[in-house]
Design brief:
Elements: H1 8-19, H2 25-40, H3 44-49, H4 57-70, H5 76-80, E1 82-85, E2 88-91, H6 101-113, E3 120-124, H7 130-138, E4 143-148, H8 151-163, E5 169-172, E6 186-191, E7 196-197, H9 206-209, E8 218-219, H10 226-238, E9 239-248, H11 254-263, E10 266-273, E11 279-286
Parallel strand pairs: 3-4, 3-6, 4-5, 6-9, 7-8
Antiparallel strand pairs: 1-2, 9-11, 10-11
Helix pairs in contact: 1-2, 1-4, 6-7
């Protein structure tokens, strides 16, 4: 098969031939663009205008390996070991969730609403560190701390901070531990905690269910706001007066989250729709 991948344009033909039974062609084209950019360091425009650029035997073997992994529904980000998030390169592995575009919208909102911010930020459930790192890069006067229960996630976050040349503190911490005490006070708390209910598993893709860390995704149907309650309780002692909270939420929980924040002493509570029109972000001001 390697002999069929001799030029850049051959990669697309090979991928369509190998993957069309599993993925729709537009998705294959998107995968092709990411793979070429990652392996060859060239843009989509370059691949279109210079389709006859040669592909080495080693790179062709790598394309074949990637396609074989994609056939098993393994997410491309885990295969490549990295992804892009708010113009930052973020390494990912099975210890951490793959960053989503809606989380980029959360980060974008914080950056736009807090230009010149120079106080502390706490990222609860940091995972890969993508939120912490993007905020540290784009709010350079801030002091960012990220916490996560998973030691592997904290290690990945630390590596990603080095990769993106930012100074962020990461700590192992369990926010569900009622005796947890953090040596942090912050003007902003941000979190993208687990918020998918167990009953929603049936509607989820295989590549998410089989490969991404379940403890970073799911909450019991009996207590879907479990982590938000813990974060808000934590904010009693950590969030400064007049501080802000920004949370990514389950689209079905906008009303419940509004009631929770309002009843917990927050003002100016607002639910914000993402680019797809879903209730995906909630914010509030500590009074």
């Amino acid at each position: 098969m390697v002999q069929n991948i001799r030029t850049i344009k051959d990669i697309k033909s090979y991928m369509i031939r190998e993957l069309i039974a599993i993925y729709p062609e537009p998705e294959i084209n998107a995968l092709n663009t990411i793979i070429i950019k990652t392996l060859f360091g060239i843009s989509r425009l370059h691949s279109l205008t210079q389709p006859n650029d040669p592909v080495s035997r080693k790179k062709a073997d790598e394309i074949i390996r990637i396609c074989n992994e994609l056939k098993k529904w393994k997410p491309l980000q885990y295969i490549l070991g990295e992804t892009s998030f708010y113009n930052c390169v973020i390494n990912v592995n099975p210890d951490v969730m793959i960053p989503r575009t809606e989380t980029e919208e959360l980060v974008d909102l914080i950056i736009k609403e807090n230009k010149g911010y120079s106080d502390a930020i706490l990222d609860v459930g940091c995972g890969s560190g993508c939120i912490s790192i993007a905020l540290a890069v784009n709010l350079p006067g801030s002091k960012v701390t990220g916490i996560d229960i998973c030691k592997g996630a904290v290690k990945t976050s630390e590596e990603n901070a080095v990769l993106n040349d930012v100074n962020v503190t990461f700590l192992v911490a369990d926010i569900l531990n009622p005796s947890l005490k953090l040596p942090v006070s912050a003007g902003i708390i941000v979190s993208n905690p687990p918020y998918i209910m167990e009953s929603e598993k049936a509607n989820m893709a295989i590549n998410v269910l089989d490969f991404e860390p379940q403890n970073a995704l799911f909450v019991p149907d009996s207590d879907p706001l479990l982590f938000y309650k813990a974060i808000i309780k934590m904010s009693d002692t950590i969030l400064l007066h007049g501080g802000k909270i920004y949370l990514e939420i389950n689209e079905a929980m906008g009303r419940h989250m509004t009631e929770l924040l309002n009843s917990s002493g927050f003002s100016s509570v607002a639910v914000i729709r993402d680019i797809n029109g879903k209730n995906r972000i909630i914010k509030g001001l500590k009074i």
